[in-house]
UniProtKB/TrEMBL annotation:
InterPro entries: BUG (IPR005064), Bug_dom1 (IPR042100)
N-terminal signal peptide: 1-22
The family this protein is said to belong to: Belongs to the UPF0065 (bug) family.
Keyword Signal applies: yes
Organism in which the protein naturally occurs: Vitreoscilla filiformis
Source organism phylogeny: Bacteria, Pseudomonadati, Pseudomonadota, Betaproteobacteria, Neisseriales
Keywords, comma-separated and alphabetical: Signal
Name by which UniProt lists this protein: Tripartite tricarboxylate transporter substrate binding protein BugD
Pfam families: TctC
Length: 325
C-alpha cells in the first residue's frame, strides 16, 4: 500500500499537466504590451496576435500597460497567474531595465518563462522636415553649429529611442538637449510638427513617415543597410562615419514564471507557426523588421540571448549615468 501511495503524487502531477495541455487555452489570452498604443512595439504585438490566433486556438486581447520605461507592464505579467493566459511582448528593455532602474520590481532572468525571440528591428535617425540638412554630413554640421540649442526627442527612459539616443550622443560628442516624452506617438507628433529636431526610432514606426516625405531620414542604425524599397537608399551610421555603431531593437515573448511546461510548449509551437505566417512576414518586411528564424525562437536560446544583452547594455547605461529610482 505504501508503494502504491508513493506513486500517487507523480501520477497526479502527470494527470494535471496533461489536463493543462489539453484544456489550454480555456479563455482569451491577454498579450500585455508595456508601451502605449500606436507605438512600434504595439504594432509588432498586433501583427503577431493576428498570426498567433489560429495556431494557438484562442482570441488574443492586446492590453497596453505603459509607464516607467516598460517596467509596469512587465511587472504586471511577472505577478500574473502562471497559466499561460497572460503573456508579455517586450523589447530590448527587458535587458536594459536592470541597469536603468535602481529599484526594479521584477528580475528579468528569474521571474519569467522565455518563449522565443520574434524579430529584430533596425532604427532610423530622422529629423523634422524643415531641417536644412539633407544628409548625415550636413546634419552633423548643423548640430555643431547649433550646440546647446539642437534637441533630440525620445519616448521616455528605457524606450528604444532613448537607448539609441544614448549611443548616438556618445558617438557624436555634440551637446544636445534631450526632450523625453511619455511614449513614441507624442514624440513623433512633435517631430512632425517641427517642435523637436531629431529622433532615433524603429523602422516599424518611421518607414511610413519617411515614405510620405513627412520627416528627413539620414541613416539606419543597423550594421547593414535595410533592403526594403523605402529604406534601401539610406546609408548606415557606420558607413556615414560612426564606426562600430550598430543598434537593433528586438522583441520577445514571455510568460510568468511557473507556467506549466506543456502550456509553454503549446505557446512556443504556436509562435513558431506564427513566425512563418506569410502575411506576418510581409508586414514585418514592409516595415524593415527581420523576423527571427534561428535557434533563438526557442526559450532556452532566447534566454541566453537576453543574458548576453544585459551584459552588453549595462556598461553603456552606467557610463551615461542615467538611472531611475
Amino acid at each position: 500500500m505504501n508503494l502504491c501511495f508513493a506513486w500517487m503524487p507523480a501520477a497526479l502531477l502527470w494527470a494535471s499537466t496533461s489536463l493543462a495541455m489539453a484544456a489550454y487555452p480555456e479563455k482569451p489570452v491577454t498579450l500585455v504590451v508595456p508601451f502605449t498604443a500606436g507605438g512600434p512595439t504595439d504594432r509588432v504585438a498586433r501583427d503577431l496576435a493576428e498570426a498567433l490566433r489560429q495556431p494557438l486556438g484562442a482570441s488574443i486581447i492586446i492590453e497596453n500597460v505603459s509607464g516607467a520605461g516598460g517596467t509596469l507592464g512587465a511587472t504586471k505579467v511577472a505577478k500574473a497567474p502562471p497559466d499561460g493566459h497572460t503573456l508579455l511582448l517586450h523589447h530590448i528593455g527587458m535587458a536594459t531595465a536592470p541597469a536603468l532602474y535602481r529599484q526594479l520590481a521584477f528580475k528579468p532572468l528569474e521571474d519569467f518563462e522565455y518563449l522565443g525571440l520574434i524579430n529584430e528591428v533596425p532604427m532610423t535617425l530622422i529629423g523634422r522636415a524643415s531641417l536644412p540638412a539633407r544628409n548625415y554630413g550636413e546634419l552633423t554640421q548643423w548640430l555643431n553649429a547649433n550646440k546647446g540649442r539642437a534637441n533630440l526627442a525620445n519616448a521616455g527612459l528605457g524606450s528604444a529611442s532613448h537607448l539609441c539616443g544614448l549611443l548616438l550622443r556618445q558617438h557624436l560628442r555634440v551637446d544636445l538637449m534631450t526632450v523625453a516624452y511619455k511614449g513614441t506617438a507624442p514624440a513623433m507628433t512633435d517631430l512632425l510638427g517641427g517642435q523637436v529636431d531629431i529622433m532615433c526610432d524603429q523602422t516599424t514606426n518611421t518607414t511610413g513617415q519617411i515614405e510620405a516625405g513627412k520627416v528627413r531620414a539620414f541613416a539606419v542604425t543597423s550594421a547593414k543597410r535595410v533592403s526594403t524599397p523605402q529604406l534601401a537608399s539610406l546609408p548606415t551610421l557606420a558607413e556615414s562615419g560612426l564606426k562600430g555603431f550598430n543598434v537593433s531593437i528586438w522583441h520577445g515573448l514571455y510568460a510568468p514564471k511557473g507556467t506549466p511546461q506543456p502550456v509553454l510548449d503549446k505557446i512556443n509551437s504556436a509562435l513558431q507557426i506564427a513566425l512563418k505566417d506569410r502575411a506576418f512576414l510581409q508586414r514585418e518586411s514592409n516595415l524593415g523588421a527581420m523576423v527571427v528564424n534561428d535557434a533563438r525562437v526557442q526559450g532556452a536560446e532566447h534566454k541566453k540571448f537576453v543574458t548576453a544583452e544585459i551584459a552588453k547594455w549595462g556598461p553603456v547605461i552606467r557610463a551615461a549615468g542615467q538611472y531611475a529610482d
